Every structure is written in structure tokens, then in C-alpha cells.
Amino acid sequence: MNRRVFGRWAAALVAVASFAGFAPAAFAADEAPDTLIKRLSDDVLGTIRSDKSLKQGDVDRIMALVDSKIMPNVDFGRMTSAAVGPAWRQATPEQKKRLQDEFKTLLVRTYSGALAQVDDQTVSVKPLRAAAEDKEVVVRTEIRGRGDPIQLDYRLEKSPSGWKIYNLNVLGVWLVETYRSQFAQEINAKGIDGLIATLSDRNKNNAKKG
Predict the structure, then answer these.
(1) Strands across the sheet with 136-144, in order?
(2) What SS3 class is residue 111?
């Protein structure tokens, strides 16, 4: 697997990082952030290898799993608001909902095809540099397989129900910041509704391509 394809697959983890079934919230609340990431990463890799439909990029199955599993474990509201930037504060509740829905669909559809590339990779979690009282941390990992290790880091925040992922660094690039630059251009040109329309059109085109 080359680094570009593997990087795309790694970014997909933020959208499908709960394939194998996350721990209940009561358990997750007591779980250290690096332990959480290691367990989830191993679960993701194992489940993709064993589920033929996931390896084939079955978007409907991926979307169903995201809806049932990802929301309790990722702060997708924070992720979307950060990607949209200052314009998020002016968006209506309906616009915010549309943005979250379209952004989630974009992530899943964009990266689902890369899941078929998963083979013999393993995840190594680096020692966590954080104090016990920290409410936000970065968990640094490496994906090891063929070729050089791939950097994959997570930003998490502590909530009453446990640690939540809200950003992802793939090969030195933070996912939210990448989309923020793209979204800002659309918002400046067409406003919030224009961004929603662009995301919707992109998702429809991706759906047609399968």
C-alpha cells in the first residue's frame, strides 16, 4: 500500500472508527485516552479484515455503523464547527444539522473505498504526554505494515461520558484544518447555504460513482 492511499484510509478512521463496537459509555468514561485509541484501532483493523462487505467499501453498511456507533465516541459537532470556522456561529440550527450530516457523508463516502486496502497493518501507540488533570490531549500513533510507519495522531477532549475524538492528523496534516480552508472559500463565495449545496452535490456525485 503506498503512503497516499494509506493516508486516505487512515483519515477514514475518524468517520468509521467504531466498526468493531465501542465500549459502553460507562466503561469509556474510566478509560485512558491512549488505551481507548489502542483498543479502537485494533478493533477497526480486525473487523475490516474479517468483514467482506466493509473491505469492499459497502457505503450503506459503513453509514449504518457510523450512525449507531460513532456519535457516542466522537465530538462530531465540535469537528464540524471547527471545520466551518467563524461562520458556524451565524448558522441556524437547521443549517448546522445539514452541515454535520453532509460533512459526515462526505468523509464516509470519500474514504470508504480505501478500506479495501487494509491488510496486515498494526497500530503502535506512543507514550502519552499528559497530566492527570488535562482535559484535552493528543494521542500519537504509528500504523506499521509494509513500508515506512505512517503517523496518525488524535486530538481528544474529556467529557462526562469519556474521551471524545475531535480531530485527526494524517501524515502531518490535521483533517479539520484541511477542510476549514476548503470550506472558507465556499462560504466566502456562496455563504453557508452555498457550502451546504456544494457538499450535497459532491455527496450525490460520489454516490453515483459508487
Answers:
(1) 122-125, 136-144, 150-159, 162-170, 173-174
(2) helix
Cα–Cα distance between 111 and 153 in angstroms, integer? 17
d(CA 202, CA 200): 5
Task: Give the whole-angstrom CA distance, residue 68 versus residue 192.
Answer: 28
Dig out the grid coordinates for 156 from the structure: 481528544
H-state helical runs in the chain: 3-16, 25-28, 33-50, 52-55, 59-65, 76-84, 93-111, 175-209
Overall pTM surpassing 0.85 (yes/no) = no
Specify whether the CB–CB gap between 50 and 72 falls below 8 A. no
Long-range contacts of 177-186 (CB under 8 A, 24+ apart): 179/83, 179/103, 180/82, 180/83, 180/84, 180/85, 183/83, 183/84, 183/85, 184/85
DSSP state of 154: E
Residue 38 in 3-state DSSP?
Answer: helix
- Show the domains of the chain with their CATH numbers: 3-209 (3.10.450.710)
Taking only the tens place, the pLDDT of each residue in 56-111 is 767 777 666 666 655 567 888 999 999 999 999 999 999 999 999 999 888 877 66
* Bridge partners of residue 122, in order along the sequence: 144
